[in-house]
Amino acid sequence: MEPILSKAEIADLLQAIREGRVPLDVDERRSEPNLQCTPANLFQLTRPDTTQFRIPNFDIILDSFCRTYATSISNQLQRSFTITRTALESYEFQKFMADKSNPGAIGILDLNPLKYGAMIILDPVLSFSVLEIMLGASSELQPLHLDRKLTPLELNILKAILNDVCGDLNKAFAQLLEMRASLVKLENNARLVSIVEPESEVIVGTFNVKVGDHSGELHLLFPFATLEPLRDALRELLNIPTLLKSSWQSVLEEEVREVAASVTALSGTIDLTIKQILALKEGDILPLEYNPNAPLKVLVEDRWKFSAIPGHNNGKKAISLVSVHQ
Fold first, then answer.
1. Are 270 and 288 within 8 A, CB to CB?
2. What does the alpha-carbon distance between residue 69 and residue 162 come to, in Å, rounded to a whole number?
3. Region for residue 26 given its phi and psi (left: phi exceeds 0; alpha: psi -120 to 50; beta: otherwise)
4. CATH of domain 50-253
5. Cis before residue 113, ω within 30 degrees of 0?
6. Spatial distance between the Cα atoms of 52 and 54, rounded to a whole number of angstroms
7. At residue 45, does pLDDT exceed 50?
8. Residues 6+ apart with CB under 8 A from 207
């Protein structure tokens, strides 16, 4: 705590100021420099995760794609691949593509029934690493760093890997819609591909793909206009009603429909004691008390479900259902 001046000390200070012994002007050379400041418009500030709010929960779809595609490419190439999403950002299409002077492999995807499709880009390191693996190179070899574009033959070899992307995108989007993605075109020149106007906004997911000591980047590029119709569905993605309608429910429903159940056409029943059953022998006749002109009971797993009339069809015994038991 700073000491408080007494009345006498205050009087001496005022007297010194009047006599000029204490200067009132601040020496700018001895003052601390001001911090560097820039003006800010509080009405135009944007949060760093603005894209996430415009397309909410889209990162969940991309993370789902990571898991399924890592499994697909690992199974196809018999190598253990790890795919991790490293970024999800918004760009102007022309500016993003301007940085891809040597992009590696570029695939144009049709995302039927969505309107504008999408684009997948494998950087050169990842493209040549995958090519080596597909052509049988040893995992102990160092990855190639070739300063050239992929040839048409090399692009054609990579087509199988990029076709798998379509199926895994369909699975990732299955919670939102039934999508039928397909690979339309493969290119090695960024200037020859375009899916939207140059100034249009695109959402870009960046993934790190690692196999052994090799790693590279994969980009999935979606025009904002492609994802905008899904914005409401994405916003409701984590709500309970939506979760109940997820693909898991559909899978369980389909599996339950394939469960086998026993069906019995019951003409009659008879009650016997254990002693009588043990005394039965070949040739014994057991009278069944039932009306042969009445419909049979059809049991599904011991529960009466239908009524039916017995008969023959194509030389075989058969029953014809006549009613459903409530």
1. yes
2. 10
3. beta
4. 3.40.1550.10
5. yes
6. 6
7. no
8. 62, 66, 83, 84, 85, 86, 217, 218, 219, 220
Mean per-residue pLDDT, 109-132: 88
Which residue reads 């419909």 in tokens?
A: 295
Handedness of CA 86, 156, 168, 170 (dihedral sign): positive
Residue 46's pLDDT is 42
Q: Which two tokens stand for residue 39?
A: 């003006």
For the stretch 143-174, pLDDT in tens is: 666 677 888 888 898 888 888 889 999 999 98
Question: Which residues, 6 or more positions from 98, have their beta carbon under 8 angstroms from its beta carbon?
Answer: none
Tokens for 23, please give them. Answer: 């200067």
Question: What six digits make up the tokens of 147?
Answer: 């300063």
Q: What is the DSSP letter of 173?
A: G
**DSSP β-bridge partners for residue 119:** 108, 221
Amino acid at 258: E
Distance CA 315, CA 326 (A): 32
